[in-house]
């Protein structure tokens, strides 16, 4: 199946960025993603398996079926899971809008950083809901780039980040989707919806987090859209270069960085 066009693309650098992001944030985002032994769990949009390894290791008694529309990404995910020695994951190429499973086939469903890239997230949630049994759960993790701020912050660093928001909008996604999780889940018909913000704050007292999140996750994500942002005239080259330099400036010893993820959990 062909790759979809989405803002971060499918490059090796992007695969590395997603893996680094997952490693850095796994405790904060996934410590409470725990399924009873014997559960059948669907992971939608697993990509290269960056979150799948944590799902598999935290839930050794669950069987996980991880799907993605990108066959190339699934091959990398397969290799990652094999290398980690997990036996409880199966991979399948599938479009989450047309899942090849019967009604109420799964006990639980999990998706992370996927809804932000689809044009109609409400329709995605309705399509996913069909394959989850009544009483089962959905877990959705998303970011929200509007939650980002740093110190020192400049007009140029803000502009570079805004380019990512604008570009994602042009491609039909929503980089500000974290704040919409509650209404999206409720409107799709899920019950007992709970959304918890997961804030990551970095300063010089946590150099590993500055390296793992501020530099290798967030700034790397912004840097990844340089060519598209300049080609589309969203920003000029000089402003871009200053914006990126200013973002790195905020990772120095007297700088700080802040970002909030949103984790929604609900019942089918
Ligand atoms: C940002 S990546 C996140 C991957 C993984 N969940 C992670 O956190 O590392 C978004 C993924 O959603 C997948 N995707 C986008 N639209 C999809 C669709 N309609 N059906 C299945 N997967 C889709 C993309 O191929 C991509 O792998």
What fraction, in percent, of the residue positions are helical?
40-55%
List the secondary-structure elements in sequence, H or E. HEHEHEEHEEHHEHHHE
Largest sheet at a glance? 8 strands, mixed
Give the bound compounds: S-adenosylmethionine
Over the alpha carbons, how many angstroms does the gyration radius reach? 18 Å
Quick one: overall form?
globular
% residues in beta strands: 15-25%
The end-to-end distance, rounded to whole angstroms, is 29 Å
Number of helices: 9
Counting helices, strands and paired strands, the structural category is alpha/beta
Low-confidence stretches: none
Average residue-wise pLDDT: 94
Total beta strand runs? 8
Task: Characterize this entry briefly.
The chain is an alpha/beta fold and 268 residues long. Helix content is 40%, strand content 23%. The chain has helices spanning 12-30, 52-58, 71-84, 121-129, 155-170, 181-187, 207-223, 226-231, 237-249; strands at 40-44, 63-68, 89-93, 106-112, 132-142, 149-151, 191-202, 256-267.
């Amino acid at each position: 199946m062909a790759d979809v066009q989405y803002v971060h693309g499918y490059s090796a650098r992007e695969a590395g960025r997603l893996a680094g992001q997952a490693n850095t944030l796994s405790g904060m985002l996934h410590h409470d993603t725990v399924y009873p032994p014997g559960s059948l769990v669907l992971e939608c949009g697993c990509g290269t398996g960056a979150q799948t390894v944590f799902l598999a290791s935290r839930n050794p008694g669950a069987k996980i079926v991880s799907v993605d529309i990108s066959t190339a990404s699934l091959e990398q995910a397969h290799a990652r899971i094999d290398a980690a020695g997990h036996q409880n994951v199966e991979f399948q190429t599938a479009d989450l809008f047309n899942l090849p499973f019967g009604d109420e086939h799964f006990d639980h469903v999990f998706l992370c950083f996927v809804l932000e890239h689809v044009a109609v997230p409400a329709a995605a949630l309705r399509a996913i809901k069909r394959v989850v049994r009544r009483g089962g759960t959905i877990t959705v993790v998303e970011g929200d780039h509007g939650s980002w701020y740093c110190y020192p912050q400049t007009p140029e660093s803000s502009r570079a980040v805004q380019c990512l928001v604008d570009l994602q909008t042009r491609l039909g996604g929503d980089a500000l989707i974290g704040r919409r999780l509650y209404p999206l889940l409720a409107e799709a018909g899920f019950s007992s919806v709970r959304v918890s913000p997961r804030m990551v704050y970095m300063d010089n007292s946590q150099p590993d987090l500055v390296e793992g999140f501020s530099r290798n996750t967030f700034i790397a994500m912004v840097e990844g859209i340089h060519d598209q942002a300049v080609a589309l005239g969203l920003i000029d080259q000089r402003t871009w270069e200053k914006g990126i330099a200013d973002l790195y400036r905020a990772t120095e010893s007297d700088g700080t960085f802040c970002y909030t993820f949103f984790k929604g959990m609900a019942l089918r």
